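Case study 2.
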Amino acid sequence: MSSALSVFRNIFKTAERAISKIPSDSEREMIRGEITKEFALLEVEFDKAVMSEATLRYQKDLESGSWLNRHIRAIIMLIYTVIVIVLPFINKVPLHIMD
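Prediction:
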C-alpha cells in the first residue's frame, strides 16, 4: 500500500511542479507587452531601413545625368492620373460620329 501512495505522491508532486510553471494572467500580460514592444521596435527599424534605401535611390536618380531617371516618378504619376481620369470616360465617347 505504501508503494501505491508513493507513486501517487510522486504523480501529485510532478503535477504540482507542472502547474507552478504555468504563468499567471499578469505574467502573461507582461510577456505579451514585452513581445509587442520588441515587434514595434523591429517595425521601426524596418521602416528606417526602407526610408534609407528610398532616400539613396532618390539621390542616385538625381545624381544621374539622364533626364528620364530624374523625372521617372513624375512621369509615372502623370500616366496614372491620365489613366484614372480618362479611362472612365472612354466608353462614353461615341466611336461613330455619323452613321
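The first helix runs from residue 2 to 20.
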